[in-house]
Design a protein that fits this description.
alpha/beta; 8-stranded mixed beta sheet; 8-stranded parallel beta sheet; 16 helices; 22% strand; globular; binds N-(iminomethyl)-L-glutamic acid; binds fe (iii) ion
């Protein structure tokens, strides 16, 4: 039997425990369930008790001898961060495109010339299983070093059945091999592959008839995502793919209104998507429709910065009652980062979320965006013991000292994985 772990004297424990269950919006995003001089008892991979150091000292008085004790004086402790939107499984890299964009090319110029997503699709198709495993493992290690303990990952760099399945099966293998929990999303409609140029509707049918049924049958994904964007998939095509996925038990997600306003936010509300992502150019009507439908906004401020675009209207979305989550969008083109702490900083700086809202967006609401809120995203009795000990004393300092990795230690399922 492994020893229990008793973490005590935590200067500030942000439990994220609140009466609001399910996506948090408005004031509920500021409720961090703070405990000063906090304490946690971890056992069997789960959180067994949460309270003040005094409360737990009394409760576990006769078991303290058996525990491994961690003194967290001067430190903040939060739930493990959750990244609800990544493209973490891919081959190769695209540093030349970074230079090209600085020289004036746009993201869409590069993609339409056969680069961008198409370039990564070629490199992912060519990558061997072992190369893909090794490359992705390095990125997952980096996520963990940045305090992230759960990561959603999308396919979409295959755009043919074989490679889409290769990416999704790789996620299954990594779920077994790596400490991080991976949540898989199918994204066959990430771009239109060159073989189907001019025959977009045929590719949509191919996704619906030949790809989705196998993905569902093999239980390779929980979510179904589409790049609904001018020049990629229309709202009508996107709706068709998302509705087909729904019939097979896959929950819709949408890359919406990233480059142009295109009705993606409205579509997310209409199809009952769990979340709409990006939303840099979302319309006011779209934001209102999302608030009404209870669709989460998954905002990606590192992508906006990297593409040198204005960030999404995060402040406005929170004020209008949309529950906001944030994510790295980790991918080789528009956001090659694994740093959720940087994304929290940017959520404050470029979207005017408060430090408390940014933490909720990166933990509890992020868990809601991938339907994991009953397992992770807050520190509550019975939940997975996924937590981060930070080299700062409170949550404001975490967001204020920006661009720095403040992680001191990480526990995943009660096991210390970063020290
Ligand atoms: O979320 N916009 C579409 N997909 C990704 C970028 C993928 C890539 O450039 O490789 C995104 O930004
Ligand atoms: Fe993305």
């Amino acid at each position: 039997m492994k020893k229990p772990i008793w973490i005590k004297y935590i200067s500030q424990l942000a439990t994220l425990n609140s009466d609001v269950k399910g996506p948090r919006s408005k004031e509920a995003m500021s409720d961090l369930g703070l405990i000063e001089d906090g304490s946690l008892w971890l056992e069997d991979g789960k959180i067994q008790a949460v309270g003040t150091t005094d409360e737990l000292s009394e409760r576990y008085a006769d078991r303290i001898q058996e525990a491994e004790i961690v003194d967290a004086t001067g430190h903040l402790v939060t739930p493990g961060l959750v990244d609800p939107h990544t493209h973490v499984v891919y081959g190769g890299s695209r540093e030349r495109e970074f230079e090209m964009r600085l020289e004036g090319a746009t993201y869409m110029d590069i993609m339409n010339a056969g680069g961008g997503i198409h370039a990564t699709a070629r490199m992912t198709r060519e990558a061997t299983e072992e190369e893909l495993f090794e490359q992705t493992t390095r990125r997952l290690d980096s996520f963990l070093q940045h305090g992230v303990t759960t990561v959603e990952g999308k396919s979409g760099y295959g755009m043919n059945l074989e490679t889409e399945l290769k990416q999704l099966r790789m996620m299954k293998r990594l779920q077994e091999a790596h400490a991080i929990d991976l949540v898989p999303t199918f994204m066959g409609a990430h771009a239109v592959p060159p073989e189907f140029k001019g025959r977009e509707d045929e590719f949509v049918d191919h996704i619906i008839n030949d790809m989705l049924p196998i993905v569902a049958e093999e239980k390779l994904a929980e979510f179904n995502d589409v790049f609904c964007e001018l020049g990629v998939y229309t709202p009508e095509q996107s709706e068709k793919i998302l509705e087909a996925g729904k019939k097979l038990g896959l929950t819709p997600k949408i890359h919406a209104d990233e480059i142009e306003p295109y009705g993606g936010a409205e579509l997310a509300a209409k199809v009952g998507a769990i979340s709409a992502e990006h939303l840099l150019k979302a319309s006011d009507e779209g934001i209102q429709a999302m608030a009404k439908a209870g669709t989460l906004a998954c905002l990606l401020p590192a992508t906006a910065l990297y593409l040198r675009e204005d960030a999404a209207a995060g402040r406005k979305m929170v004020d209008e009652g949309v529950a906001v989550a944030i994510s790295t969008d980790c991918n080789p083109g528009s956001s090659p980062t694994t740093s959720m702490p940087l994304v929290m900083n940017l959520a404050c700086i470029s979207m005017r979320l408060t430090p408390a809202e940014a933490l909720t967006a990166a933990t509890y609401n992020a868990a809601c965006a991938i339907n994991r809120q009953n397992v992770v995203g807050s520190l509550e009795v019975g939940k997975q013991a996924d937590l981060v000990l930070w080299n700062v004393k409170n949550y404001q300092e975490l967001q204020y000292l920006f661009g720095v990795n403040h992680v001191k230690a990480v526990w995943k399922k009660g096991v210390q994985v970063v020290s």
